[in-house]
Specification:
By secondary structure, the chain is mainly beta. The chain has three helices and seven strands; from the N terminus they run H-E-E-E-E-E-H-E-E-H. The termini are far apart.
Length: 137
């Protein structure tokens, strides 16, 4: 497991994690006479989500870390990353995780989940006004 055995064994299903991993990259418009050592080729990706487990795929038997990266109703989006691509796995507390998650908004921008949660009112929430008693002089 490439040195991540301890971190992965400590994780429980539902733990918030940040996974730092190598991703593939396409490098466009590279001059034919360029020195390959001058072009950065590594692509480091950070993915935040909730840990589901480590599974081996049935066809190639390669272990993958599985994290939930999105939820909508009773549906989830899972991200599956082969362990050989991992650079770091960091367990997060929920507050840290929510700060780093981004949501695509209707106007085409991105907002952090924590900002959206602050703006949202829970359904059925009532605004309570405290009654004040006038002070007697």
């Amino acid at each position: 497991m490439m040195g991540f055995e301890k971190e992965l064994k400590r994780l429980k299903k539902g733990d918030w994690v940040k996974v730092v991993w190598f991703d593939a990259a396409t490098i466009s418009k590279v001059p034919t006479d360029v020195n390959m050592n001058e072009i950065p080729i590594a692509t480091i990706t950070e993915t935040v989500g909730q840990f589901m487990g480590v599974l081996k795929d049935e066809k190639f038997h390669v272990p993958h870390i599985i994290i939930v990266t999105e939820r909508s109703g009773d549906m989830e989006t899972w991200t599956s990353i082969p362990l050989v691509l991992l650079r770091k796995v960091v367990k997060l507390v929920e507050r840290e995780a929510l700060k780093s998650l981004k949501v695509y908004t209707k106007d085409g921008s991105f907002e952090s989940v924590s900002v959206i949660l602050l703006k949202a009112k829970p359904e059925g929430a009532k605004h309570e006004e405290k009654a004040t008693t006038p002070k007697k002089c």
